[in-house]
Structure prediction request, 117 residues.
Amino acid sequence: MSHEAGRKFIFIAGAEGSGTTVLLRLLSSPPGYVSLGGSHFKYPRPAKDLVGAFDAANHRLWDRKESFAVHAEARRDWHAANAAILASPIFEGVTRFFFKRSFPFDAPRDQYAPDMW
Prediction:
């Protein structure tokens, strides 16, 4: 995500149950900060479709059972969703965008957990 005009995208990752959600809630609580996903969302409600597209693309990126073609498409969709969020007047006053994932984060675990080998 672009760092234009001091805007930053911050990705939080950790083991399931390690406190990543609490960290996400604390970090995204100030005005001008949003949470675009994980188990806690905080964003202006008119941006629901923009955030949904971002989250859906990210979810496809983590799916280890998908093909390289699907991953490539998901990467393009993820970047397009980021660009749409940054360009949207809804997010004009936002300077920090948080997103988190805990690993493994979805069932079936072998499908969405990172490959640690």
Notes: The longest helix spans residues 68-87. Helices lie at 20-27, 48-62, 68-87, 109-112. Residues 46 and 90 are 7 Å apart (CA to CA). The two ends are 28 Å apart (CA to CA).
